[in-house]
Amino acid sequence: YGVNQKRIRATIASTTSNIAVDIACDKEETKMLLEAAEIPVPRGTVIRTEVGLDEAIEKFGFPLVIKPIDGNHGKGNTTNIQNREQAYKAFAAAKEYSRSVIVERFITGFDFRCLVINNKFICAALRTPASVVGDGEHSIQWLIDETNKDPRRGFGHEKVLTQITVDQYTDKMLEDAKLTVESIPAKGERIILKPTANLSTGGTSTDVTDEVHPANIFMFERIAKIIGLDICGIDVMVKDLRKPIVENGGAILEVNAAPGFRMHVEPAEGLPRNVAEPVVDMLFPKGSVGRIPIIAITGTNGKTTTSRLTAHIAKSANKKVGYTTSDGVYIQNQLMMKGDCTGPVSSLFVLKDPTVDFAVLECARGGILKAGLAFQNCEVAIVTNVAEDHMGLGGIHTIEAMAKVKQVVPETVFPHGYAVLNADDDLVYDMRRSLSCNIALFSMDENNPRIRQHARENGLSCVYENGYITIMKGSWKIRVLQARDVPLTYEAKAVHNINNCLSAVLACYLFRDIAIEDIRTGLQTFVPNENLTPGRLNFFHFKRFTILADFAHNPHGLQLLCDFVNRLDYPVKIGVISGTGDRRDDDIRELGKISARYFQEIIIRCDKNLRGRTADEIIGLLKEGIDEVNPAIPTTIIPNEDMALDHIYENPKEGALYTIMCDVVARALDKIKELKIREQSEEKLKALS
Asked: Nearest 5 degrees, angle CA 370-CA 373-CA 374?
């Protein structure tokens, strides 16, 4: 994840040297380097014309090998060339893949592929060209078709072996043997169908790792270092790998970047070799870390504010933070994606970012139900609360079932990690019984019996204690900061934000490299506004009135918002409310009831997306709730949010606080800002007149 991620494509890794790959792709340069290091290689030269070919034939004689200088997978290679006619055809075939062509003396022996990873010899395989064995009754084509019925054979690299195809190289091999695909070979006669032993052309492999002579192992590891490849495939032609190559006339034919692993993982014969393990060990050596710290946050309300505050504290500790919220995805405080980004796709966006070394991921109900989580484990999980919201959606009909959905997040915590649970919420507190990780608790009441019991067990907690945000463990306490000194709490009037601070502080304290001073700094510098905390207690002060915009959208959230509003000193408090169409009737009625208890006037407006209901249905349910509490409360019905805001601006109550339940936060805030600009423009015009 993040800064610790490694990349691998085929068998070239992010650690593989680009220069080494270039050298390996240039067969002549590879040969020169090896020859200079006293590594046995075939005598040969590089040519571009038939004149050069004639000169090479005169110099080296037959048999020869002709191949493109930068070919791969045996493409354009012709071996065991015995005469000029074959040489000219081989030259033409090689020219199809490269302007320059290598002509080498043909080395007799067997074709071996030796694999070196991270400068250590791993395994070796004997490669056999594609072939069929005659039965004295059927044609070569029939034998090929029967061979291709082997379930291990597929097209290209889809299976362990590749199907044998009849191509120009097959035709040439058969022609040289005075055969065609219709010929019927004698029983037991092996017919070679390809000039090279590559698995990609239908060849097979036999593992010979345990037979390789130590002198050859030393040579292979030295070759990998000479070329500079950390994943290196070495093609060897030799009669016997059990003896030193230099003593039995063998030679190194090629050194390959991105060598194939199929021949080693599932050889046709011999012991399979786990060649992936040394690659992973190279990318992530023992003691190294491939992950980044993850704090996952879930709950019904407070997730986004807690996520933002947690990310801000981590940033204060010089972390390169990526975080997701219901407002968007942020990489080091830069908005990358806008919208509700609380699902696994957004989380994965953060985890894949190579600049991030600390992730804070908001995980909402919808994403969990639809696609699960983007991570298998996390270091810390916070569960803020569980309240009735989204009931009846996604098969969730009870608050207990909703708690089970939220519990998915703390269940992913590593055994050595921590679940940070709300001790004031019965459903959240009860999650501890199902978890196998450490438990840390937070509470607005330092005398909560659950906190006291946790302290007796030497457990870690964070509480609101005598006006302080306090960390407790056993008998000791650390007073982090007075709540009224934290801007997010609005002088300790926003009690629900004190609660959010407790969980964020506790989660960050669990990381040794985030100091108490970092936490204090983060709390003091997290100043709520429409940019840092959009849709969360955003105040807009106009000349004659004030707007408080908040994304409260369920009864629990609205109750917390109204508790805060109740502590504010305004002569008139007016609520601008709406109901979400896909919620239960009782949930929508409850919004009306809560509003009627706290506001002197109410404006009902409708969301842009009615989610399966009519506007009249939603308005009717809200009115039912209002009338049940206070039927005399003045209530105005306005079709939508923009019109409601225009109505407030054009018909303000002097000194009033208008508390608005936002529909789409960004759109609502933009509209309010437009009204601020309008007010400023009108003030300027008045001043000029």
From this structure: 120
Omega into 63 within 30° of 0, i.e. cis? yes
Instruction: Supply φ then ψ for residue 254, to 5 degrees.
Output: -150, 160
pTM of the model: 0.82
Token pair in block for residue 246: 């230099």
Sequence-distant (≥ 6) Cβ neighbours of residue 644 within 8 angstroms: 576, 603, 605, 638, 660
The residue assigned the tokens 């994840």 is 1
Q: Which residues contact residue 292 at a Cβ distance below 8 angstroms, ignoring those fewer than 6 apart?
A: 1, 2, 3, 4, 351, 356, 357, 358, 359
CA distances from 195 to 103, 429, 582 (A): 15, 70, 68
CA torsion sign, 406 to 409 to 411 to 416?
negative
Q: DSSP code of 160?
A: S
Distance CA 491, CA 65 (A): 84
Backbone angles phi, psi at 583, to 5 degrees: -90, 165
Q: What are the structural domains, with CATH classification, of the chain?
A: 43-105 (3.30.1490.20), 110-279 (3.30.470.20), 294-525 (3.40.1190.10), 538-688 (3.90.190.20)
Quote helix, strand, coil % in the chain, to nearest 5.
40, 25, 40
**Which of these, 314, 289, 293, 291, lies nearest to 359 by C-alpha position?**
293
Tens-digit pLDDT profile for residues 230-272:
999 999 999 999 999 999 989 999 999 999 999 999 999 999 9
How far is residue 417's CA from residue 414's CA, in Å, rounded to a whole number? 5
Residue 200, judged by CB atoms within 10 A of its CB (0-12, 13-18, 19+), counts as: middle
Residue with tokens 């601006």: 649
The total number of residues shown for the chain amounts to: 689
Q: How far is 415 from 438, CA to CA, in rounded Å?
A: 7
- 196 band by pLDDT with thresholds 50, 70 and 90: confident
- pLDDT bin (cut points 50, 70, 90) of residue 688 is confident
Q: What is the per-residue burial (b if ≥16 Cβ within 10 Å, else e) of 495-534?
A: bbbbbbbbbbbbbbbbbeebeeebbbbbbeebebebebbb
According to DSSP, the β-strands at 101-105 and 44-47 are antiparallel
User: Do residues 112 and 124 lie in contact, with contact meaning Cβ atoms separated by under 8 Å?
Assistant: yes
